[in-house]
Amino acid sequence: MADLKAFALNCSLKSGAEQESSSTDKMIDDIFAALAKHGVVGETVRAVDQNILPGVLSDMGQGDDWPRLREKIVQSDIFILGTPIWLGQPSSVAKRVLERMDAFLGETDDKGRMPAAGKVAIVAVVGNEDGAHHCHAACFQALNDVGFTIPANAGCYWVGEAMQSKDYKDLDEIPESIDQTIKMAASDAAHLARLLKDSNYPGL
């Protein structure tokens, strides 16, 4: 029986509504396959297909899809942020997602805990240029700032040969080193999420 829930936001710039394949989706799917072996189930939403309004509140008003996505995040035990690398940076979509989580800073409970307290985060990065470690550093810092716990080895990435056209989704099989990284991230995230679910941080 699955006892943990995960929710992933694919921050590709490609629209899922147009059935465009996404390397970010492929890596997230691989992470979910690894998580399933540890009793984790969940879903992925492609963020660019949602109307995530700019801002730093949990609800920016009429037409804002973020409140629904926020609810999925806070109801999950594991949050997966997937982003491609563009110009050496996380995608603009990923940055908007992180900006919207800034609201967590002012939404503490009576023990001073933010909505993400007791939840763990994995970051998946894909691209054809340098920047994976920079993307992880930027995303993990932001996620930790708003209350997520970062497990050991929680950064999964694949970076193809610079300025070439082969993407992660084009690989015939997952390279062994990437496969091991994904499996370790899943194992560590599920282990830590289960511990925190059973005994959350005490707060103030």
UniProtKB/TrEMBL annotation:
Pfam families: FMN_red. Residues 7-162 form the NADPH-dependent FMN reductase-like domain. GO terms for molecular function: oxidoreductase activity. This is NADPH-dependent oxidoreductase.
